[in-house]
Amino acid sequence: MKVTFFTNSLSREGGGLFHSVRSLAKNIRNSDCEVNVFSPSDPHQDQDRAMWGDIHTVTYHRLLAFKVRSKLSQIAPDIIHLNGIWLPHSQIIHSFSQSQGVPQIISPRGMLDPWALRNARFKKTIAGWLFEYRNLRNASCIHALCESEYKAIRAFGLKQPVAIIPNGVNPPLSDPDRKNLPWPYPEEWREHQILLFLSRIHPKKGLIPLIHAWQQSIETNADWRLAIVGPDENDHIKDILRLVEDYGLKGSVAWIGPQYGKDRTACYHHADAFILPSYSEGLPMAVLEALSFNLPAILTPECHLPETIDVGAALLTEPTENDIAEKLRELFSLERSSLVDMGQKGSQLVKTSFSWASISKRMIAVYKWLVAPDSHPMPADVRVD
């Protein structure tokens, strides 16, 4: 089966999609599917291209997406999987899919959630009327990462089948392979416990209320330090660092910048807990990665991982400064043994429910059903209600 992916970036520029789409594509490729990946070009694509392995990739200027149609015709895919929306290539995918009778599955990746729709609403409304609304309505299937995203998809008015399949995570490095990982944090923090925030530096990630909450709770704690890791978007980090300076928190809060490869792995390995106080997510890869490294977590409902609360792997907070401060105090009060226990519960959850090997098989079952519904039954992951 020939599977063609479209995504927003082949590099770190894509944020969480870079990790989730690449991992899904590579695992599907390992299941004897032919996989091609199309994406708009960006400054880091050559630097990060090796991370896609032997998967065939095609890049193009995002405003010249029409040029990929001839390449699509040459590949003659059996199915097209669009990851992320609101980009001009959606129009080309829709036209090709309709004219050639090729089924298309769309993964909004959280981009139809209410907060995401409100953000840059004017631009998205224009893109919607120009091409994306039509593309979404005519897709053969929509892919939701979780129950909450399924509800958002239905609330948006989309009525076609929805496959609910989460993101996955690759197994972390073995203990021997972690020994030489560098210390990624300020040298003076070596004797302290590290609370890690790892994500894009974007307003939706909840960093402003986190810094306010850190100031509220810091008097109850002298041992923890907050490491902020991730690429800055639209200079949002200036607002964060200004707040850190105003509160006099430079000794306990630091922006480490974006980290990739082994440096990113080192951030997880040397941390003691993880936090993502986000206003809006699909299913955040960083949380799954943190759990795989045995890190207890503080998460908002918008992270869409209620399983972590059910098994006792995370503390649940609303994305408000007072609630985050309360959960920080709770985290600070936990004994080391309790933190270890939470971390082990999270790691076990990832192993049983979020491995890429099992998730790619579920996605392939959806592909086969869409390509040949007479030969393959509708998978249990698909809802038509």
**Low-confidence regions:** none
Known CATH architecture of the largest domain = 3-Layer(aba) Sandwich
Kindly report the spatial arrangement of strands forming the biggest sheet: 3-2-1-4-5-6-7-14
Q: N-to-C terminal Cα separation, in Å?
A: 28 Å
Task: Look at the helices and sheets and give the structural class.
Answer: alpha/beta
Q: How big a fraction of the residues is strand? A: 15-25%
Report on the biggest sheet. Answer: 8 strands, mixed
Number of strands: 14
CATH class of the largest domain: Alpha Beta
Give an account of the 3D structure.
By secondary structure, this protein is an alpha/beta fold. The chain folds into two domains: 2-168 and 355-383, Glycogen Phosphorylase B (Rossmann fold), CATH 3.40.50; 175-353, Glycogen Phosphorylase B (Rossmann fold), CATH 3.40.50. Helix content is 43%, strand content 16%. The protein is built from 16 helices and 14 strands. The strands form two sheets. Strands 3-2-1-4-5-6-7-14 form an eight-stranded mixed β-sheet, with helices on both faces. The longest helix is centred in the middle third of the chain and has 18 residues, at 121-138. The chain is globular. The model has no long low-confidence stretch (mean pLDDT 94).
Sequence-ordered SSE layout with sheet pairings:
Elements: E1 2-6, H1 16-29, E2 34-40, H2 45-48, E3 56-60, H3 69-75, E4 79-83, H4 89-100, E5 104-107, H5 114-118, H6 121-138, E6 141-144, H7 147-155, E7 162-164, H8 175-178, E8 193-198, H9 207-217, E9 224-229, H10 236-247, E10 253-257, H11 262-269, E11 273-276, H12 285-292, E12 297-299, H13 306-310, E13 314-316, H14 321-333, H15 336-353, H16 356-371, E14 382-383
Parallel strand pairs: 1-2, 1-4, 2-3, 4-5, 5-6, 6-7, 8-9, 8-11, 9-10, 11-12, 12-13
Antiparallel strand pairs: 7-14
Helix pairs in contact: 1-16, 4-6, 9-10, 9-14
